[in-house]
Amino acid sequence: MDVERSFDLPPGFSNWKKSVRPDIVLRNDSGDVVAIYDIKTGDRGVDPWRAKELRAATGAGPDVPIIVMYTAEAVLKSQTI
């Protein structure tokens, strides 16, 4: 598990950003990314471009869920983009 670790974006992925910092990257025993957690204090979710950034930087596949946790409402949501 990686907690608030910075991951470099692949070359050419973004013109204005070099890295991303997911809140939590959960890995299985083999080291593969199995889920990415994004904790929100407001009510905004994860935009599709943000999900692409998180997956690209962590090496996660398109089927890895982005799990959004809202602290203000104590609601858990999962979305696959």
Topology (SSEs and partners):
Blueprint lengths: L1 E2 L3 E2 L10 E2 L3 E4 L5 E8 L7 H11 L7 E5 L4 E5 L2
Parallel strand pairs: 5-6
Antiparallel strand pairs: 1-4, 2-3, 4-5, 6-7
How would you characterize the overall build of this protein?
- By secondary structure, the chain is mainly beta.
- It has one domain (2-79).
- It is built from one helix and seven strands, in the order E-E-E-E-E-H-E-E.
- It has a five-stranded mixed sheet with strand order 1-4-5-6-7, covered by helices on one side. Strands 2-3 form a two-stranded antiparallel ribbon.
- Helix 1 links the parallel strand 5 and strand 6.
- The longest helix has 11 residues, at 48-58.
- The radius of gyration is 12 Å and the shape is globular.
Going across the biggest sheet, name each strand in turn. 1-4-5-6-7
How large a portion of the residues is in β-strands, by DSSP E? 25-35%
- Largest sheet, described in full? 5 strands, mixed
Uncertain stretches of 5 or more adjacent residues: none
Round the Cα radius of gyration to an integer and report it. 12 Å
Name the overall outline: globular
| Alpha-beta content class | mainly beta
Distance between the termini: 22 Å
- Mean pLDDT equals 84
Number of helices: 1
In which range does the helix fraction lie? Answer: 10-25%
**Count of spatially separate domains:** 1
- The counted number of beta strands is 7
Helix and strand pattern: EEEEEHEE
